[in-house]
Amino acid sequence: MILRLAKWLAILVVAAPVVGSAALLATGNGFFFTALARTYLAGEPTANVNDHRVFATRTIASGAAQPWPEHERFVGDALTPALLSSLETQSGFAFLVATDGKLFAEHYRLGYAADSQTNSFSMAKTVVTLLLGIAIDEGYIDSVDQPLIEFLPEFADDPFGREATVGSLSTMTSGYDWDEHYYSPFSPTVELYYSNDVTRFVLGRGFSDEPEERFYYSSASTELLAIVITRALKRENPDATLSDYLSEKLWQPLGMNADALWHTDDSGMELGYCCINTNARNFLRLGQLMLQRGRWNDRQLVPAAFIDLMITPNGRPSYGYSTHLSVDQDPSFYAFRGHLGQYVVVVPEHDLVLARLGEQHDRSGNTMSEVLPFYVAEALAMVRAESAQPVDKSSVAPSP
């Protein structure tokens, strides 16, 4: 009897993976295998800031580098005790501050450095909307009010899809049917991240709400926007890609210090809602561009009026066009935000930009009302400190 039972258990152990695999494939959940290969089999419990190593990527080419000028009171890696404690307890690995257009502070830990290339996660949403502003300015797209179906005819028979506009994808008010959940293995967000064909996946769903009626933060909406921009560009150049457009219109004119990598699916479509991999100095520079209302070295890279649109509440007080807003704080600020605590924060009143990157979220409070205001307050305290003096530059990572 015991031997017979052991035999059946052995059969189950062998058969279960086969049956389970067949069931996953039969139910359209084959992305589980990709997710497993890129997380647990790669030694990680979940998506992480270094996972460009296990994704297909496309290069965002840099040009001639424009090093950050150092502030005359550059403090190097000498952060406030409160900031150092926060980074230590919340697994933050980079904290940079720029004021007056110059680098004021730069701190790294956990083995990361000035040239470490890490994942933006959803900070890429703001970058894609910057590209939208450029594409409109260059005539590839008429306006934020252009009907979505002019680029995505797949939704022509969808009653709500017919009413949605290009801009509503950026403001998260398109009414697209979605469940933004990062940790359930059955969430469409997880499937989107590990899908081998993101275009087919997002175009295969539909709209559940009247456009402009409700705000719902949705990674799929930004992926749809990335597809819109890509299709608009391909009307003139069939070989156009989002990465090349970012390189030509922003990465090279901004003088980024290194090539970046953008995750793609198996077909080569960028994961537009996330996953631009670069270093902290380059993330900080994107914030500086926003602070300067799209202008860089006497060139208007993004129309100033479009930057103003991005940082004006639309759909809800805390969100504009792919930009997180905190208009009721003193001082007010706006931010790029990404999974696991990737932040670029712009404080116009004080000509200040900061970047915080990390391996996990700062869970010490609400992000917009507590965490980011804390970072802003500490950065301002450093800038205002009368005792701030230049440090020995030999102890600071060299400029790129």
| Regions with little confidence, pLDDT below 50 for 5+ residues | 1-27, 390-400
* Strand count: 12
The number of helical elements comes to: 12
Shape: globular
Backbone structural class: alpha+beta
User: Proportion of β residues?
Assistant: 5-15%
Binned, the helix content reads: 25-40%
- Biggest sheet statistics: 6 strands, antiparallel
Mean pLDDT: 88
Radius of gyration: 22 Å
**Strand order in space, largest sheet:** 3-2-12-11-10-9
Quaternary structure type:
single chain
Intertermini distance: 71 Å
> H/E series, N to C?
HHEHEEEHHHHHHEEHEEHEEEEH
List strands and helices in order, with pairings.
Layout: H1 2-26, H2 31-38, E1 56-60, H3 81-89, E2 92-99, E3 102-108, E4 118-119, H4 123-137, H5 166-170, H6 188-194, H7 198-203, H8 219-234, H9 242-251, E5 260-264, E6 276-278, H10 280-291, E7 295-296, E8 299-300, H11 304-310, E9 324-326, E10 333-338, E11 342-347, E12 352-358, H12 367-384
Antiparallel strand pairs: 1-5, 2-3, 2-12, 4-6, 5-6, 7-8, 9-10, 10-11, 11-12
Structure description:
By secondary structure, this protein is of the alpha+beta class. Helices cover 34% and strands 14% of the residues. It contains twelve helices and twelve strands. It has helices at 2-26, 31-38, 81-89, 123-137, 166-170, 188-194, 198-203, 219-234, 242-251, 280-291, 304-310, 367-384, and strands at residues 56-60, 92-99, 102-108, 118-119, 260-264, 276-278, 295-296, 299-300, 324-326, 333-338, 342-347, 352-358. A six-stranded antiparallel sheet has the order 3-2-12-11-10-9, with helices on both faces. The chain has a four-stranded antiparallel sheet with strand order 1-5-6-4. It has a two-stranded antiparallel ribbon with strand order 7-8. A hairpin with a 2-residue loop joins strand 2 (92-99) and strand 3. Helix 2 crosses helix 6.
